[in-house]
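4.2 Preliminary Data

To establish feasibility before requesting continued support, the project team ran the inverse folding procedure on a target of 163 residues. The structure was first converted into the token representation described in Section 3, and no sequence information of any kind was made available to the design step. The complete token record follows.
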């Protein structure tokens, strides 16, 4: 079975298997595993990359991104929480997930040491495929909410007081 055909459709069973390999790569805590399942020009776009200005492109950069996240959250575990969604006529699939763990590593950059706080957050990943690999990822999740849970961001009130 192939991921996509010349018409741009996506084999749904392939996409589900592929996404499980993505989740398995993260949950194995071995960043090198993502290199085999993304294209040479793969681009990862997420709230974290947008906030930091980090351009993640290619297998090595994807592996480095996973390493960065696991460096801050060494016990991070992902789980799929809903059936996938598919785009008609496009080699695209969306997957809903939930991540849990503890901020027990270091968030580098900027070098914030972990405090052991637990977190749980959810999001959506939309992947485009070329052949049997992903070529683009657009991830959506509440980065500010995660930063609040782990105590990195406390927020502010309308009058400027922190809460």
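Position-by-position output of the design step:
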């Amino acid at each position: 079975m192939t991921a996509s055909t010349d018409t741009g459709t996506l084999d749904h069973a392939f996409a589900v298997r592929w996404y499980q390999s993505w989740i398995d790569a993260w949950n194995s805590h071995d960043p090198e595993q993502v290199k085999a399942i993304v294209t040479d020009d793969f681009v990862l776009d997420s709230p974290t990359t947008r906030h930091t200005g980090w351009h993640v492109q290619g297998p090595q950069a994807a592996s480095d991104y996973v390493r960065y996240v696991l460096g801050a959250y060494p016990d991070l575990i992902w789980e799929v929480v809903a059936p996938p969604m598919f785009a008609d006529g496009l080699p695209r699939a969306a997957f809903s997930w939930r991540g849990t763990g503890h901020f027990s590593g270091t968030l580098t950059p900027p070098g914030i040491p972990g405090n052991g706080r637990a977190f749980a957050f959810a999001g959506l990943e939309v992947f485009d495929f070329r052949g049997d690999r992903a070529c683009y990822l657009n991830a959506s999740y509440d980065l500010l909410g995660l930063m609040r849970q782990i105590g990195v961001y406390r927020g502010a009130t309308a009058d400027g007081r922190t809460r």
